[in-house]
Amino acid sequence: MAFYSKRDLYFHLFENHKIEDLISYPYFSDHQRETFDLVLDAAEKIAQNSMYPLLTEMDRNEPQLENGKIKVHPGMRKIIRQFGEDGWINATFSYEEGGQQLPNTVYQASGFIFQAANYSASVYPFLTTGAANLIRIFGSKELKEKFTPNMYSGKWQGTMALTEPDAGSSLSDLQTTAYPTSHDGTFKIKGQKIYISCGDHDACENIIHLMLARIVDAPAGTKGISLFVVPKYRVADNQPNDVLTQGIYHKMGYKGAPIAHLMIGSDDGCEGYLVGEANKGLSYMFQMMNEARVGVGMNACAIGTAAYHASLSYANERPQGRKLSQKDPSLPQIPIIEHADVKRMLLFQKSVIEGSLSLLLYCAKLSDLVHVEKGDQKEDFGLLLDLLTPIAKSYPSEMCCLSTSAAVQVLGGAGYTTDFPIEQYYREARIHPIHEGTTGIHGMDLLGRKVLTQNGKALKLLLREIIESIAAAKAIPSLVSKTIMLENYLKRTQEVIDTLLPKAGKDMEAFLSDATLFLEMMGILVIGWQWLKQATIAAQKLQSEDLEKDFYQGKIMCMNYYFEYELVKIGSLSTRLLSEEKVTINMKKEWF
Amino acid sequence: MAFYSKRDLYFHLFENHKIEDLISYPYFSDHQRETFDLVLDAAEKIAQNSMYPLLTEMDRNEPQLENGKIKVHPGMRKIIRQFGEDGWINATFSYEEGGQQLPNTVYQASGFIFQAANYSASVYPFLTTGAANLIRIFGSKELKEKFTPNMYSGKWQGTMALTEPDAGSSLSDLQTTAYPTSHDGTFKIKGQKIYISCGDHDACENIIHLMLARIVDAPAGTKGISLFVVPKYRVADNQPNDVLTQGIYHKMGYKGAPIAHLMIGSDDGCEGYLVGEANKGLSYMFQMMNEARVGVGMNACAIGTAAYHASLSYANERPQGRKLSQKDPSLPQIPIIEHADVKRMLLFQKSVIEGSLSLLLYCAKLSDLVHVEKGDQKEDFGLLLDLLTPIAKSYPSEMCCLSTSAAVQVLGGAGYTTDFPIEQYYREARIHPIHEGTTGIHGMDLLGRKVLTQNGKALKLLLREIIESIAAAKAIPSLVSKTIMLENYLKRTQEVIDTLLPKAGKDMEAFLSDATLFLEMMGILVIGWQWLKQATIAAQKLQSEDLEKDFYQGKIMCMNYYFEYELVKIGSLSTRLLSEEKVTINMKKEWF
Fold first, then answer.
1. What whole-number distance in Å separates Cα of residue A265 and Cα of residue A228?
2. What's the CA angle centered on B344, arms B338 and B349, to 5 degrees?
3. For B442-476, how does the pLDDT look when each residue is reduced to its tens digit (9 = 90+)?
4. Shortest CB distance from B250 goes to which of A220, A324, A417?
5. A337 with B409: Cβ contact below 8 A
């Protein structure tokens, strides 16, 4: 069972985003196309042999809390260790840190394969990478030496411990408190954390929480939040560190990864280590969260991809009905992929997942460029990446709920049963618009922050890129009509921006009231741009002697689909965004 | 926990659709407003006391196949019997048939309450009603006497047995065969049926299948399909009738109702009774299916309603964040219902479910009028109902997948956990675009059949109704701008129809290729019309001395929401529908 298309992934990496460019930078200069291929082959092997076979099992045997400890699927121990041994957890880190200086783009592409095979299983090592990254960048030498080696090896699990019962979207309301101790510079931590992914389990020997807490007497709000390392077991003596697993959340999907409710320091016995400076915790966390957000977009895209391929293979095999022009019941039935409406549902999925993957790997490449570039270039890439982050998180997250739904629909009744993995994908996709910032939060981030930054500089950079892509596409006669279409919708988008921005200074409530729709509109535009880029390359290849005509024709046709069925939605969205009627602002809670 | 709004239901029944009008017809003349109230109160009591308490339990303890028999939740036996004893199963049937001549509108409204409380539990008795109805209308006196009394009492379960492994959407490919026997006019049935809801279970003493089969040597295709009554146990001696439960389907949602795979006559021992005439089975079934289709729309709407109320109550209680103008972290957090984006998600849900309920009860009233009216009036109501049926089935089905998703999103992480029933509603909503004809099938039914009937007469009747509603709304100054908006989108819709229809005769494949989008567009228009009607009444009430200002303001505001955020989508849909680019037709399966 194919859960992704290697051909398509390679198209994005090597034809669309030309990531071999990265090799020219000294940091990546030991790599070559062949090492990238080897990495991706290795990823496919783990995904195929170790992860995909557990997909259904892990869903049906969800983690359980027993005697204060969370038990997960026994197969997870082997998978995590393999990730450690093969060097995945610190693959992108420098040689000095034991890493391989792998471009983030290749790392994300590998992640995509893992996630498409088994999203729950992929969560464990990725969380460890993120947590270790925080220690690596902001922690002291002692902290690094104490914690990161066992995290890199997969022996210990890392987590991000942010959310509390009264502080979800509103992180400024964090209550967990850190008390300095006189003897050794450590802190005593007290509080509770909820929804902590992999917050406790028995597939690793220790759990290392990267935890936000407020040092006693710190300023209120976001300015008084610090970052701590809080292990479940103390490193010195392996004794419990007073981090109690109070509960486990059962959930609709991605059941294979445990989500814990933790009580911290209930017996005054929890030791934590400050990372970096006091009160800078949130800014540290946000630097990682931006990467995590692009990562969530990738998760969603990967799940959508697996669902697409499952539904595509069903559509090719399932005979049902006949062409409308040939209703004779004595004729054999045709595979449902021949029906226009089934093709529409498949094209919808393909346009969402391949459009998303294109954007996500573009963002990954930007992050590599930010890493290796200098000066203005570095700054520009950074601004562009920041602007695109809420879109790269939210478009795939929202749209893969719909694309997995289309996958269910392709199968009809069969799609609703547990005989196929598609209903699981549908359930798993639904988490992504929620975690790492809800779609609503990202709408406000985009319109209320990213668009306004440096007088709209990031936006100008994005527009420049889009206009460049349009110019390149215009050189191909068969694409001209579509370039005009994109130009028109780009104009429409700019009209919306020009109408909205003057309101920013005045009434923020009103200015941001439809930020979610603005995010949706920008997502549709940006993915349209990614499709035009893909189609441009495909059209060029088709002009040459390329033998893979089917693959490239598919790209062109899917671009057509996207423009005809998806891009047009900017029309309605902009109608709403240009309207002066403040429906949600004026609605009163008593009227519901 | 409120799972529906009685106030809103009464608004639709008595203010919006004025169903007391029905009492003037002799068939309903024994009823009065008070008896309707009593019926609805009784429905609420069962829903609240017997059904809602089992909602979660039935989801977590799904039916199991043990030793060839399906075991369901033990509470179902009591619920089904109560439905029988209280006369729900045959409530709409005539006095002569032991029924109460209850208007279908009141029966559907009661069904809405049951479905909102516990969709799975509501399925059992509703299926029995549908099956009994087929025997009642098309069966012989003997069949009626033999089967219906025990179905009405809830002792026996009724089913609709249509789908087969090779015949889902394509019913013309049914293979189950009926062989006439010489001795008593019965038939021997052989074949298999899949996805049979309540096809076997232990909460009733017998299962009565209304089964489609092909009499041996009957014409191929839909013209050779007959309808049979096939009991699980023979009535004469209570011995097994060779209907074997081969399997049970486990599924994503509505787990409380079992779905069976049945082997019929594997040992040549299955007796069936022909209903009505040979080869007319599909037309009989379709008469019932039209009602069932509106019923599916109601199911979806009811689930969406329960999710809306659960998310509304959470939004009123959950404090998180602050007004954007008051970010001071020392201020207390505000309930999330104060945030514009949360209000948007609630308004979206409200607009979908109350708009749908309005349409569904309108359809139910039409079916009552078809029943009691005569001549041209009867025909017109019938045509209008036929035209609206695919919309009444599909708009709620598709949109309540999205509205339950919005309910999940209102709760954020909590919505994804099993701590709240909302994730269950999300899973249960997803079946409705599939069963009783997929959305794609209904799109083709609307554009390829209903719109074309009698030279578009049904469409003209609908337009007349919409224009009348617009005229009534124009009398209210505050609604004038919205009436113009609806007129414009109506014009746009007509433009699409005028562009599409000339293609009907030529290339059906191309003509119907975007039928699903056409259905979507028509759904948005029709629900917009229902909202204008609701707002007109609300505005009238607000002009008077009415004390329920909050309720009516909510209606006006939700209409505003619908027009500003939903109706505008006709813009993009019509752009696509007017385009000449045949993307899905031109796409080849090799290109995926």
1. 14
2. 115
3. 999 999 999 999 999 999 999 999 999 999 999 99
4. A417
5. no
Rounded to whole angstroms, the Cα distance separating B431 from B396 reads 12
Cβ contact (<8 Å) for A568 and B560?
Answer: no
pLDDT tens for residues A256-308?
999 999 999 999 999 999 999 999 999 999 888 888 999 999 999 999 999 99
pLDDT tens track for A322-381: 998 888 888 999 999 999 999 999 999 999 999 999 999 999 999 999 999 999 999 999
In order of B252, B300, B431, the CA distances from A428 in angstroms are 12, 22, 17
Task: Give this prediction's pTM.
Answer: 0.98
Query: Which has more confidence, A283 or B547?
Result: A283
Residue-wise pLDDT for B330-382, tens only, equals 899 999 999 999 999 999 999 999 999 999 999 999 999 999 999 999 999 99
**Interval B198-204 mean pLDDT:** 98
Residues of chain B neighbouring A173 (CB-CB closer than 8 A): 320, 329, 333
- Nearest-Cα distance to chain A for B590, in Å, is 6
Give residue B288's pLDDT.
Answer: 82
Report the range out of A329-333, A494-498, B289-293 with the highest average pLDDT. Answer: A494-498
Place B1 in a pLDDT band, splitting at 50, 70 and 90.
low
HEC secondary structure over B77-90: HHHHHHHHHCCCCC
* CB < 8 Å from A in window 259-288 of B: 259
> Phi and psi for A208 in degrees, rounded to 5?
-110, 105
Alpha helices for A412-501 (secondary structure H): 413-416, 422-429, 439-445, 453-474, 480-500
CA quadruple B63, B68, B69, B70: dihedral, nearest 10: 20
pLDDT in tens, A211-222: 999 999 999 999
With beta carbons under 8 A apart, name residues in chain A contacting B343.
584, 587, 589
CA distance A342 to chain B (A): 9
Q: Do residues A276 and A138 make contact, with C-beta atoms less than 8 angstroms apart?
A: yes
CATH code of the region A6-152: 1.10.540.10
Residues of B with CB below 8 A from A343's CB?
584, 587, 589
Cβ partners under 8 Å of residue B515, min gap 6: A341, B440, B443, B444, B446, B447, B448
Distance CA B11, CA B361 (A): 11
Class of domain A156-279: mainly beta
Burial class (CB in 10 A: 0-12, 13-18, 19+), B36: buried
Min Cα distance B412 → chain A (Å) is 6
Residue A1 has pLDDT above 70, yes or no: no
The vertex-B40 CA angle with B38 and B42, nearest 5°, equals: 70
With vertex at residue B428, the alpha carbon angle to CA B426 and CA B432, rounded to the nearest 5 degrees, is 110
* Three-state secondary-structure class, residue B174: coil
The number of beta carbons lying within 10 Å of the beta carbon of residue B69 is 11
Q: CB distance from A341 to chain B under 8 Å?
A: yes
Prediction ipTM score: 0.97
DSSP letter for B183, please.
Answer: T
The full 3-state SS of A507-564, as one line of letters, equals: CHHHHCCCHHHHHHHHHHHHHHHHHHHHHHHHHHHHHCCCCCHHHHHHHHHHHHHHHH
Maximum C-alpha span of chain B: 88
Single-letter amino acid, residue A370:
V
Looking at domain B157-279, its CATH class is mainly beta
Give percent of chain A with pLDDT exceeding 90: 95
Q: Is A423 annotated in the active site?
A: no
Cβ under 8 Å to B: A residues 14-53: none
Please give the full DSSP string across A198-232, using - where no structure is assigned.
TSS-SSSSEEEEEEEEEETTPPSGGGG-EEEEEES
Contact B590 A550 (CB under 8 A): yes
Q: Where are the domains of chain A?
A: 6-152, 156-279, 440-581
